[in-house]
TrEMBL record:
It comes from Betta splendens. The gene is fgf7. The keyword Transit peptide does not apply. Pfam families: FGF. Keywords: Signal. Coiled coil: none annotated. InterPro entries: Fibroblast_GF_fam, IL1/FGF. This is Fibroblast growth factor. GO terms for molecular function: growth factor activity.
Length: 202
């Protein structure tokens, strides 16, 4: 176990929420959390790599934010170099640093891992997969829930009229969209950012 690996504890995170301000950034909610220097260094490092690849990013425009999505089941969402979607409990994992871009009104977003440059996509059968090339399957609708949690439903596909959500199980595995529900904790995420990042920019 590396010493910089943090045992993330949702109860502590939620406790912090009451101590720190919550900012509403456009339509997108973000929770500012105190991060360790290691966590911050990793995020800065991962973001630097993004600047090298940005030239190759054909998708321009839209409001872009760098966030980590922390699930209510206590995992950070990742998309690796094979396009696999999974959870990690290591907050310094580069694949968990996500670029969240507004693609159209009504809270429609595209979510991409900076390191792998794969977008999160959901196909017709509700399977989550990473996609190198952006298409409509990469569009998700951000739904605001109580207690600062958000849910992300496919903007393209539904199953028998029901929304299908990005969800991570208790074991950090992605769930099939048709097994997900808005009320299930597996579908609940907090978009997080280190408070220290803001201070640096100031
Ligand atoms: C920064 O990124 C490079 C390239 O991926 C990696 O080798 C290095 O270990 C990273 N440094 C930190 C502090 O995370
Ligand atoms: C997904 O994450 C879990 C928990 O960290 C890990 O045990 C598993 O090997 C990962 N699976 C893949 C395909 O990366
Ligand atoms: C959805 O994605 C999965 C995993 O990549 C694939 O096995 C399946 O065939 C896809 N289904 C459709 C309808 O595209």
């Amino acid at each position: 176990m590396h010493k910089w690996m943090l045992a993330w504890n949702l109860k502590n995170l939620l406790l912090e929420l009451y101590l720190h301000a919550i900012f509403l950034f456009g339509s997108v909610c973000v929770v500012y959390s105190d991060c360790t220097p290691e966590h911050l260094a990793a995020i800065m490092n991962c973001s630097r790599q993004d600047r090298h690849t940005r030239n190759y990013d054909y998708m321009e425009g839209g409001d872009v934010r760098i966030r980590q999505l922390f699930s209510r089941t206590q995992w950070f969402l990742t998309v690796n170099d094979d396009g696999n979607i999974n959870g990690t409990q290591d907050p310094t994992n580069c694949y968990s640093i996500l670029e969240i871009r507004t693609v159209s009104e009504g809270g429609i977003l595209a979510i991409k891992s900076i390191k792998s440059q794969y977008y999160i996509a959901m196909n017709k059968s509700g399977q989550l997969q990473g996609k190198r090339i952006y298409n409509e399957n990469c569009n998700f609708k951000e739904v605001f829930l109580e207690n600062y949690f958000n849910a992300y439903s496919s903007a393209k596909w539904t199953k028998n009229g029901k929304e299908m959500f990005i969800a991570l199980s208790q074991k950090g595995r992605p769930l099939r969209g048709k097994k997900t529900r808005r009320q299930h904790i597996a579908s609940h995420f907090i978009p997080m950012k280190c408070r220290e990042e803001e201070r640096r920019i100031d």
